[in-house]
Structures are given as structure tokens and as C-alpha cells.
Amino acid sequence: MGRYDGLDVRRVDPEGQVVELVLNRPEALNALSTALADALGRATADVAADPAVRAVVLSSACDRAFCVGADLKERNTFSDDDLWRQRPIMRRAFGGLLDLPMPAIAAVHRYALGGGFELALSCDLIVADETAVFGVPEVSVGLVPGGGATQLLARRVGWSRASDLLFTGRRVEASEADRLGFIDRLVPPGRARDTALDLARQIARNSPIAVRHAKRALRQGFALELGPALDVEDAAWRAAASSPDRHEGIAAFVEKRPPVWPGERPRS
């Protein structure tokens, strides 16, 4: 699908059902510059608009890091006005990942710090290998996390555990991250990307309509009281149940064959 500034976008399979977003600023350990953040915002908008895409993997081309967070060398040259101008670009980068209509999976190795950790948190699932190190050190440089960590981390691990990490800025190795519960798969060194791609392919085999509505129900219902949240689920159920995917899925199950979802049928 092409290369953006510091970001490669690849279709993993010929059908384009799984797309990989590859952070590729190895000279800066994938530090989030204004250009890279803008690339993420544009790339995620393009992927979100592509009906063929069923799952997304966010990975790193840098052996030494997933992403070390904001590019502080760039920011050291900023005036206050420069920083305010950068802010909406950064928000689009994180928001673009968070708002993808299809599931997104982060494949993390080595350092995922600050904004790098927040990129992973903006995905639905985090696969990390045993070399991964996480942290939100913003308070140590006079900042507050601005890519969603104060909200997304608490939703994954609870108020007190999030407070520990946010207020101390300490680093967490993969084994503790697994124990705290903010990663979803812990794998041997070098296996994060392959595991994330396998997981994406597994997701892509399911009904794309059902998966998208399931994600929408999760995201919209999470912050609601139970009654309204169940209404969100009901709306998602009705949308999936009235789609052609339901007919094909049930027919394929009864006939003991793989489903051919309507969107992927060959044209006559």
C-alpha cells in the first residue's frame, strides 16, 4: 500500500484482508516526530476507509525498539506555539489507531515507552515478546501522557495499578506487564510479529461485518451503565443478524464448509 514518512504500510495477504503498519525510523528508535505522527494519522484514515481490510497489525522495523515515545530532540527545538501546533497531529495519530473499525493488534518488542506504549494501548490487543519493556515516563520530563494512557491503561489494569505506573514513570518488563494484565499474549523473543500476524489472520477468517459490530459494541458500551450497554449490544446484534453474512455463516456451518463471506464472492 506504500510508504509514508517513517511508516511502511503493507498488505500481508493477496486479498488485502490483513494490513501491517510498520514503524520505520530506526535511526531514532521510532521516536514519534511530527512527520511520523502525521503519517500514522493519514495511513490509519486510508486503512479505515478500505472495506477489504479485516485486521491491522502495528509493528516495528527497528530491532532495538517498538517506539520510544515522542521525539524529544525535535521538541527541544520547539517554541510553545510549535508544541500547540503539533498537538492535533499527535491526537490524530493515536485517535486514528483507536478508532479503526476493524481490530488492531500491536506487536511489541524491546522498548515501548511514553507515546510508544500509548500506540500499543490504542490497539485492541497487545502481543509482546519477552524482551519488551513498557513505561509512561512523561511526569519525569514535566508532562502528562497525551496519547490516551491515563484512560486506556486504567481501563486495562484498574485505577491503582495505572496510578503506580503513571505517577512513578517506572519501566515494566514483559513478565510484570503480563502479570499486571495489560498485554494479551506473551511470547518468546522474536515471536511478537509472527504471533500478531497469525492472530490477525484468525480474526480475518470471521465475518467482517460481525467483527466490526462486535468491536463497536465493546468500545461504545464499555463506559456505559449495564442497561444502556446492553442496548448497544442489541443494536450490534441486529445489524449483524440482518446482514448477508449471517445467512452465509449458518449455511456454511450446516454444510460443513468454510464460509465465503458475501463481500469476497467472485464477480460473475
UniProtKB/TrEMBL annotation:
Keyword set includes Lyase: yes
Keyword Lyase carried by entry: yes
UniProt enzyme class: lyase
GO terms, biological process: fatty acid beta-oxidation
Enzyme nomenclature, EC number: 4.2.1.17
Similarity section: Belongs to the enoyl-CoA hydratase/isomerase family.
One Pfam family, short name: ECH_1
One GO MF term: enoyl-CoA hydratase activity
Protein name: enoyl-CoA hydratase
InterPro entries: ClpP/crotonase-like_dom_sf (IPR029045), Enoyl-CoA_hydra/iso (IPR001753), Enoyl-CoA_hydra_C (IPR014748)
Keywords: Lipid metabolism, Lyase
Catalyzed chemical reaction(s): a (3S)-3-hydroxyacyl-CoA = a (2E)-enoyl-CoA + H2O; a 4-saturated-(3S)-3-hydroxyacyl-CoA = a (3E)-enoyl-CoA + H2O
